[in-house]
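Anyone? Bumping this.
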Amino acid sequence: MKNYYLKNVATLKLESPKCTGCGKCIEVCPHQVFVMREGKSVIVEKDRCMECGACVKNCPFNVLEVKPGVGCASAIIIGWLTGTEPSCDCSGSSGGCC
Amino acid sequence: MEITNREIQVAKTSTELTFQDILGAWKVRWGINRMNYKVEPGLYSVGKPDSNSPVMVSANYKLSFDMLRKELKGLNTWILVLDTKGVNVWCAAGKGTFGTQELLNRIAIVQLAKVVSHRTLVLPQLGAPGISAHEVTKYSGFKVIYGPVKAKDIPSFIHSGMKATEDMRTVRFSTYDRLVLTPVEFVGTFKVSLMIFGILFLLNILGVGPFGFVDFYAYMGVVIVGCVLTPVLLPWIPGRAFAWKGWLLGLIWAILVNVLNGWPTVPQYSILRALGYLLILPPVSAYYAMNFTGASTYTSFSGVLKEMRVAIPAMIISIFLGAVIILVNNFIIL
């Protein structure tokens, strides 16, 4: 069974004219967000993007953009409470993320 | 000028997990010693690798390392373990500790270029958020191939000439995947739960009780609903936001608690108490379910933020109203 999260929230963007169709994003995306069409990568499943940033990091031509962050509520709460950026530092108390 | 040749250090490891390894894995799943379960970073050998054998890169979380090496039976490979501070590949990649810089450093420290004659590294695909493959190549000369998400696919990945199929590259979140993550979530609630019991006990002493066995099992039930039941049933619960899914199952539990205590047929069981449970229990379950976003494999930062902006104020208002109603009800029966 496929898992789908909230619609229309992902910040993923692809600047199509600059794309060379190297296919790296397709290789690293864990949720099959991209497909190759006519020699260029295209976002087909934007709602499945979890903003992990793998595609952005591995695009040699800086075609992709995403606001990276952790999809983890307790990290965001700790961030709010301590006034820091949310990160995966669970420090062993809660959350199975790391 | 004197040129010193550092000795190349390789540690031998096996593909067999010992009882200690299995016990250690079980313990971290229950949150025991989870943040300090590490192996030494460096180069390891599996079987009898030579200069042509593949190099697999991993994290120094012992659970990650063990899951990798147990799948390498019958293969001769090198494992390059990065220092990720004892954190698994995916989370460490997100934090940047499983990153380009650390990989380049580790290649230099273990003198990998002297150990192998080829220039190819196999990285777990979930390490990609931390690694720029083209930068690794630019600075070290090593080409990065992203392998499968799951270590169990590595033998077929190697035998097919290092080609990861679409299936191998997709992250799943099966019922079993979710189930093994629930003990840590459940154990993580103990501290807060003890504080809540402490507060209820104090309220009893102060004479604004009585909080008793029903409150205890109502609360414990809702913790299990939020931390275990919602994660396990995740894809089958209608809706998308985790908090909503948890709230829905929590509501069912709250109704069940009320009905088990005779509402609405038993007149002693007041409507105020029933209403109090309906307001307090579902948001508690919603909160714990929302925290499972951190364990899931498909939630985004933007998405979690969006659901929290609605869910957190709603939870606070609901629990506050419920608490007021329960306390008012207690005064009436006193």
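Late reply, but here is one note on the structure posted above: Residues 91-98 of chain A have pLDDT under 50 and may be disordered.
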